Amino acid sequence: MSLLSGYKVIDFTSFVSGPTCTRLLADLGAEVIRIEKPDKKKGSGPYYGGERTVDLGLMRGKKSVTLNAKDPEDYSILMKLIATADIIVENFRPGVTKRMGVSYDDVIKVKPDIIYTSISGFGQVSPYQNRGAFDIIAEAMSGFMSITGERTGKPVRAGASIADIFSGLEAAYGTVCMLLHREKTGKGNHLDLAMLDTMFAVLNNPVTAYLNGGGVAQRIGNEHPQDVPWDDFPTADGIFVIASARTNTFVKICQVLGCEQYSTDARFCNDDVRLQNKEACHEIIRSYTRKWKTKDIIEAFNEAGIPCATINSIDEACNDESLQARGMIATVTHKTAGKYKLPGSPLKFAHEPVKLAKGSPILGEHNREIFSRLGLSKEEIDALLSKQAKVRTFFKEFEME
Asked: Tell me: the pLDDT tens digits for 280-321?
């Protein structure tokens, strides 16, 4: 049994933020049932085994049911399914669920204690609530992009869609908190989570500093606003990073590099003066690291207890000894694509460990299983799926014209 076994989640999500939330719930054992359009398109690649790799990762462990909320028969089945659920997660633009008839106000009529999580760009109530939003929008508006990049370069987004990912993480956390509260009180709840809010909260340190009389944070590349030396440094055959947060670590760096005289230099002898003389400190360190091969300096620094690392490419990270030893590459199975690999769960519980085995579902893979649970007969299910097949055929022919 997994930690969330026995809980049923209705998943109305798409793109990344919502699916990240429900993926985390599925990883912990919840039964996540995706509601998808019968004529849903696969979208752009890359693909593996005929499936989008993004879906193979984000939709793992979930079930797929095809229903069209605009169809009265399908809507009736959908509401029956919702009445059996514990959690609903959606990331439509505000107002869409109301038009679909599955808003929080609609759902509590059939399931008063529902846990309902809404993820959107700007929130259900906001001057911007009708605007469209993607990851880069939240990164830009929150201030995150303004402090990301090199000092003299342009603002840049993160290499991964972190506004989506952080929003999914916060939503999953909030969902489980609401679930825990319901266990204590019997009351449901509605979470209104905005991507812009999330990314603004991520900037806790620079925002708190500014709001309390500090300056406006600027882009500083791989440097740290307080700690020195903290940056990327060249070697004879590559590049690596150093993270030194205290003077005693700086002393160790000087000892390993053979430049002990700088550990007592008046410009560098404590945290405050090193920060004031950051450029000079970094240039001195670079003049010594250039003489070392990357492998040798990493070994020497690690032996001395100095935080450092190579800058791994994705393929190098996939072969990292620690990530492999901790089971961070999992193998799951897809109905048509077969076995494939993806990142494992970082949640390592002493009891009830997370075990990933199920891949993402194909469209409508669990229709018969879920519909029969709701009391539909084989004949009723056959008729429903036949109707959906005609819809798919119509749209396919329409697109070819």
From this structure: 999 999 999 999 999 999 999 999 999 999 999 999 999 999
Q: Where are the alpha helices (DSSP H) in 84-161?
A: 96-100, 104-107, 135-142
Per domain, the residue ranges of the chain are 8-203+322-400, 230-311
Amino acid at 157: R
- Please give the torsion angle defined by the CA atoms of residues 20, 15, 326 and 355, in that order, rounded to the nearest 10 degrees: 60
Q: What is the CATH number assigned to the segment(s) 8-203+322-400?
A: 3.40.50.10540
164 catalytic, yes or no?
A: yes
Whether 219 contacts 148, CB under 8 Å: yes
Residue range 230-311 in CATH 3.40.630.10: no
For the chain, how many helices (H) and strands (E)?
Answer: 17, 13
Structure token digits, residue 211: 């709001």
Q: Which tens digits make up the pLDDT trace of 24-38?
A: 999 999 999 999 999
- Which sign does the torsion angle of CA 348, 352, 358, 363 carry? negative
Distance between CA atoms of residues 153 and 155, nearest Å = 7
Q: Please name the residue ranges forming H helices in 186-293.
A: 195-202, 204-211, 247-257, 271-276, 278-289
Q: Which position among 164, 197, 227, 231 bears the catalytic label?
A: 164
* Residue 246, helix vs strand vs coil: coil
- What are the two backbone dihedrals, phi and then psi, of residue 15, each rounded to the nearest 5 degrees? 60, -120
Tell me if 384 sits within 8 A of 72, measured CB to CB. Answer: no
DSSP single-letter state for residue 260: G
Q: How confident is the model at residue 391 (pLDDT cuts 50, 70, 90)?
A: confident
Length of the chain counted residue by residue: 401
- Across the chain, what does the average pLDDT equal? 96
